[in-house]
Amino acid sequence: MWNERYSSEAYAYGTEPNDFLVAQFEKLPEGRVLCLGEGEGRNAVWLAQQGRKVTAVDASEVGLEKARRLAETRGAEINTVHADLADFEIKPQSWDVIVSIFCHLPPELQRSVHRRCVEGLCSGGVMLLEAYTPLQLEYKTGGPPTTNMMMDAETLRVELAGLEFQHLQECVREVHEGEFHNGIGAVVQAFAKKP
Questions:
Q1: Residue 22 in 3-state DSSP?
Q2: How much is the pTM?
Q3: Any idea which fold 2-193 has?
Q4: Rounded to whole angstroms, how far apart are CA atoms 34 and 88?
Q5: Coil, helix or strand for 11?
Q6: Edge-to-edge strand list for the sheet holding 79-82
């Protein structure tokens, strides 16, 4: 599915970074950044342009090829890893920042990935996440077609236990990120720090 989604010359979710990521950037610690389900690379490339060492992981080789092209055109350098998140090893205490932007997964895999993210952060590291909530089905402006692949604040408190939330809220906002995330959207935003 994702290779097909990314097969067009156009960037499915645009080439500009996510609004929440940009708004929170100044609070992010220096160091190594892991971007999960990064697709065509808009967030990873922007972070690299800000001087961060970024690794972008995605299951779509087509998406990652576009991410590498985007980085090249912007004079940025990113590391790309072609892997399914079910198999990708997030080594304990190895990342300063983990970014998850609209990285929707089946519930069991989501729980596993989130636990590995908590373990994978260094002390003082930060998890930054934005995802659609079940309310998004009323807006139909992007995201998965079923609620079981969406997230809410309560679920994130449980799945990211061990982190201290500095920001955790559900809200409805304008999301204009390419063709497939366009319009009013119901989202959950999280910024959580590892003690």
A1: helix
A2: 0.97
A3: Rossmann fold (3.40.50)
A4: 12
A5: coil
A6: 79-82, 53-58, 32-36, 95-101, 121-132, 181-193, 164-177
